[in-house]
Amino acid sequence: MTDHSIKHIFFHELHEHKHRIVLTVSVICGLIIPISTAKPLSAQTIPTLDHNFIRPNLEYGYNHTWGNYTDITLTTDWSLSQKMHITGGLSSSTADIHAFYAGIRYDIPLHFGDAGTLYIDNRYLLRCVVRNDIWDATGTLSAGYFHHHLRAEAGISTLYFFDSNGGIWEPLGFIYLLEGMIFKNSHKWNAGARISNIRPFAVERFYFPTFSLLGQYRISDRLAITAEGGVEPSGIFNMAAQFYSGYINLGLKFLW
Amino acid sequence: MVKRVYILLLALSPIIFATGCNELDFPGMIYSSSGSVESRFAESISWNLSHESKIKVSPSDTYTMYVGTDCHVDKTYNNLSRFLEEEKNDPTSIGSFMLGDLGQTYDLFPVIAEMLADSYVIVGNHDMYFNRWEEFRQYFGTSTYCITVITPKYQDLIIMLDSANGTLGSSQMKWLRNILLQSRAAYRHCIVCTHVNLFKTDNSQQFTGNMPIAETFELCALFDQYDVEICLQGHDHYREELIFKGVEYIDIESMEDASAPPAYLLLTVGSDITHKFQSL
Which own/partner pairs from B1-6 qualify as long-range (CB within 8 Å, at least 24 positions apart)? Predict the structure, then answer.
């Protein structure tokens, strides 16, 4: 193949995919500009939940219903103001489940010492369970508290699942999250544990807690590697518990 | 230091007290003393293979089924006796079905087991406490099985499932899928019985858990795909009739002597399946 034909193919491909290239460059610039100009997280004094981040994740899991599966997810948290944040995420699983969530969180920093942050969180999760030809929509409203080593959250949820012929409404569920970390959020590396019935793309019935171990390593103020693993037993409140599912996931967190 | 030990003991006292209780198996919140559904399923299937298939012959194409659940026998068993007597007096009945939670304590279990010797029984979560599965197995042998009802013109399929741990587990789920795939077409009607209910539309049972949402969806899709007509459930002590994906899900209230009002379900199976609740 001559240099001329390679050049021809290159420019032809460039022309063919110009829209995709422009879009990719715009997205990258859109991320890099705020990241490079924003105030780093460690400069904050009151402990708050991480915000202004985008987090791609890869998860491998197993449960008795789907068997083995892999999830790819993208979650984000954008600050509209110091107190108001919008959250969202997309997920796609080899178990043929695709999900989207959007939410809003209102932080109430407690301005005495480093007393932490109270927050109110409202989320809407929509999942398309293709394997079962079922859609489900979940709404949650919760209140939480975050301090350097602790996060606690409790609230209510409502679930409606349906197909083209109608659906079933489970009007009231309870959600909870209790998380403890060894170090402060700004520490270079951190590890902790969590018990909760909520995960970004699943709001489980309240008697299905997931027990998780968490880890994070901050490469810089703006980039961290995250790792998480957990198990979910069934039948805890039946007093006949056994293993139901487990997962491990790895991700990157880009902060700005 | 001594003060701290006292505080710790005081904090742990409800748990220490609870572990001494003979009704609720609190260590079962960590791991069931009756093992996992996987091991029970293997034992049930092994029992099924070494015994004759459960076949019931009905002289008519229309017959009745008596379905009760959650009798939680403690010191008395009046409702259970009445339920079984009413079934025995119905010449159209093919049998009585008991969907788990037979005993609150198992002091009277040999008596209950004898009363239910001719019934079709599955385990509930209360039948798992303190390794009661061994006792259950001794009397009933299996908790995952099929019943074929043969009528002059048709045959119907009734599938009994072990859901006491709040999940069917992977092996039982595969078995259920295979049964429906291979056999469903040969039967007129298909009815599935499980102790744990699939939906959580109310909080009548407070913290008592049912299935994970993923498993609820999987079963709903499976029942729809293979034209299961009715899924009968217990556990919730709350009457509920729901239709989802063309399948009727009936949750039957408790038959416990102390419950108000106790009831059972009378199912009439003919060209269609109809049902009514009978108070006890």
Answer: none
From the list A129, A131, A235, which residue is nearest B209 (CB)? A235
Question: Which among B168, B199, B213 is the top mutation candidate for probing chain A, defined by the most A β-carbons within 10 Å of its own β-carbon?
Answer: B213
Strands of the sheet containing B273-279, edge to edge, are B120-121, B93-98, B63-68, B263-269, B273-279
**Residue of A129, A166, A208 with shortest CB distance to B212:** A208
In terms of phi and psi (left: phi > 0; alpha: psi -120 to 50; beta: otherwise), the region of A163 is beta
Inter-chain CB proximity B203 and A232 less than 8 Å:
no
Mean predicted lDDT score pLDDT of chain A: 87
Contacts of B213 in chain A (CB under 8 A): 136, 159, 161, 202, 204-205
Q: Is the dihedral of CA B176, B83, B135, B212 positive or negative?
A: positive
Token code pair at residue A26:
């715009």
Mean pLDDT of A137-161: 96
- Torsion sign over Cα B38, B211, A246, A241: negative
CA B36 to chain centre: 16
| Rounded Cα distance, A240 and B25, in Å | 8
Cross-chain Cβ contact A239/B245 below 8 Å: no
List chain A residues with CB under 8 Å of B131: none
pLDDT 10s digits, A44-99: 467 778 889 999 999 999 999 999 999 999 999 999 998 999 999 999 999 999 99
**What gap in Å lies between CA B219 and CA B213, rounded to an integer?**
10
Round to whole Å and give the CA distance between B52 and B41. 17
The answer to whether B90 and B66 have CB atoms below 8 angstroms apart is: yes
Q: Output the furthest CA–CA distance in chain A (Å, rounded).
A: 74
Nearest 5°: the CA angle A17, A20, A22 is 105
Q: What is the pLDDT of residue A11?
A: 60
> What residues have CB less than 8 Å from B4, skipping those under 6 apart?
none
The closest alpha carbon to B29, from A195, A207, A240, belongs to A240
Neighbouring residues of B244: CB distance < 8 A, sequence distance ≥ 6: A166, A167, A168, B199, B220
